[in-house]
């Protein structure tokens, strides 16, 4: 910290040059979609190898895209009128005074290992606008934006820890969130995504769950072969595109450096550490069964392997393909027109309960719970009052940023507690009221990142990482 923003950020003309270069380098040599690793290495060269302030800390963000219902998961209101309280009952946990939904019985036995924030809120009620607001800490000008106008937290972490990138990317995801992105930090700080689906960054919510784990049909998308090398022969023709690079690269002497950065990007993607992190066959059968042979289970087991291998921020959408009679979505956007919210939870939550509880136990058993934080949340909560807009009359809940719950485990923080409370219908925080930026400030604090650090926007304006939000003292 303590450095002038100008020393951290590439000048406008040089940044544009690297965007062009990166699109040909990693795009051609790796996945064809992510021009970020070579650019990240370029940024490291420009920063002169300066060490960013950081700690041995990582995050797994399991993102409930669409907005999980706080009233049906972590903040139930059994005394509210029937049109508010929902169909599930709260159950006691192993921590006196903490109750969660009856649909999460395994997690109820380990409440001493997690914490619940019940009083976060913000002001944006659109999916992508809410995602931008929640993950970046700033309200966007646009409402339904595909790409964030401000850098999401994972991109900031990748930027601040850039000099720590060695043989595995710092920031990984299964796919891009709707309303997320590196914004003016540039593609160098987007997550590496093994097999992204562009539909995930639109208003479409009916795509199939997107894996972050390696499977037989994803070997090429992961840029990993069984021998641990990139399938460069099949992309050899694309290498010729380097010949058409703008002449300015030769004039400024950056082409030789680009070649070296390409090699490093390839080495990073083909390294044994990266290759093995995605390979669930290296886990014993008992561990795989504990997590479950499901999308949730295999995703979270891969997330654990990634952070154990050195990835510092992993984000993975918590997707689930519902039965057609239950709903049409693969996320948590549980409007009546999308799904029967309670039947959807009856389908999803057993797998969620198994895989999340397995992850928490696994992190603890491996001694990772002090340095790996697991988060489950979405862009907002759901409306207190149940709606029945669908012609079938099935129940659902709508968008509600005025109250939400966040589930946390590990990270060296104080677990076994509930922080904050909402009113009797779950509509508004009434105790320990916190802007959602408080959660971001807490995570940045654990990374050792000074939120007063500024980056230059595309217009050349210095913008701090955060301008509001204080770390949550009860957790630290």
How would you sum up this structure, described in words?
The chain is of the alpha/beta class. 32% of the residues lie in helices and 13% in strands. The chain has helices spanning 5-8, 12-29, 37-46, 70-73, 82-85, 105-108, 127-136, 153-160, 236-239, 247-251, 255-270, 272-277, 285-291, 295-309, 341-365, 437-447, and strands at 58-63, 90-92, 99-101, 114-121, 171-173, 313-317, 372-377, 381-382, 399-400, 404-410, 417-419, 421-422, 429-431, 434-435, 454-456, 462-464. The strands form 5 sheets. Strands 1, 4, 5, 6, 7, 10, 11 and 14 form an 8-stranded mixed beta sheet that branches. It has a two-stranded antiparallel sheet with strand order 2-3. Strand 12 (421-422) and strand 13 (429-431) form a beta hairpin. Helix 2 runs antiparallel to helix 3 (37-46), helix 3 (37-46) packs across helix 11 (255-270) and helix 14 (295-309) runs parallel beside helix 15 (341-365). The protein starts with a helix and ends in a 12-residue tail after the last strand. The model is unreliable at 1-35, 48-52 and 223-258 (pLDDT under 50).
